[in-house]
């Protein structure tokens, strides 16, 4: 069984232009995520999944410099892009994350992969972690099937094709480690305030470029609760509703 971390990334952001390559602690923001993925004990390869649009050429260059794979596919149909990448690299289980999330927890990711494989699930998700610290897992065969039932070309947010159709075996892992479980914390980066918070975290915990854990981030917020106010006003974007054209069973 081959397991991979797929990092979805593009440079088209309007609220925070080219954010995934924006310097954070002296390195591109996406580099912090890649470093965490490299700490995984369950991942066989890391694939940066971007588009074929020329504006995303710097992401392919970054992947080469970071020593990870790159796949370029459909600009808007993210589900199709990820499915094509899984097929290209013959991946059985994908741990999916977004380059918007520099602080994804590899410990929780590995736990979710183990949970997914042990339960024979099609799609798994986590609960109780900070927003932007978790991943989801998808079987390659389930991804391919989801592409046959969707009736939309814009699938930037695609989890609903698994969780809302009743066609797939879904698993939910409830994380219970108090050192990591802070669901109210927002660690994703969509807007300038989110990036400001991320910069504060890296400045306080990432001396000399060290990679720090989610438990350290949670402890930092416990010591300095005023940090949460930096992006407390930011609201997560509402995803487009899914569109399904078939009810065939998985």
Give a description of the structure.
- The chain has helices at 29-37, 57-66, 78-88, 106-119, 140-149, 160-163, 192-205, 214-223; strands spanning 3-8, 23-24, 27-28, 45-51, 69-73, 93-98, 123-127, 136-139, 170-174.
- The protein has 250 residues and is of the alpha/beta class.
- It has a single domain (3-229), classed as Alpha-Beta Complex (Spore Coat Polysaccharide Biosynthesis Protein SpsA, Chain A), CATH 3.90.550.
- Helix 3 packs antiparallel against helix 5 (140-149).
- The two termini are 20 Å apart.
- A 7-stranded mixed sheet has the order 5-4-1-6-8-7-9, with helices on both faces.
- The protein contains 8 helices and 9 strands.
Secondary-structure map:
Layout: E1 3-8, E2 23-24, E3 27-28, H1 29-37, E4 45-51, H2 57-66, E5 69-73, H3 78-88, E6 93-98, H4 106-119, E7 123-127, E8 136-139, H5 140-149, H6 160-163, E9 170-174, H7 192-205, H8 214-223
Parallel strand pairs: 1-4, 1-6, 4-5, 7-9
Antiparallel strand pairs: 2-3, 6-8, 7-8
Helix pairs in contact: 3-5
Largest sheet: 7 strands, mixed
Structurally, the number of domains stands at 1
Classification by helices and strands: alpha/beta
Spatial order of strands in the largest sheet: 5-4-1-6-8-7-9
Number of helices: 8
Arithmetic mean of pLDDT: 95
The total count of strands amounts to 9
The succession of helices and strands, N to C, reads: EEEHEHEHEHEEHHEHH
Name the assembly state: single chain
At the third CATH level, what is the topology name? Spore Coat Polysaccharide Biosynthesis Protein SpsA, Chain A
What is the helix fraction of residues, given as a range?
25-40%
CATH architecture annotation = Alpha-Beta Complex
The low-confidence runs, each spanning 5 or more residues with pLDDT under 50, are none
Taken as a percent bin, the fraction of beta residues is 15-25%
Shape: globular
CA(first)-CA(last) distance = 20 Å
- Our Rg estimate from Cα atoms comes to 17 Å
The CATH class: Alpha Beta
Query: Could you give me the name of the CATH homologous superfamily?
Result: Spore Coat Polysaccharide Biosynthesis Protein SpsA, Chain A
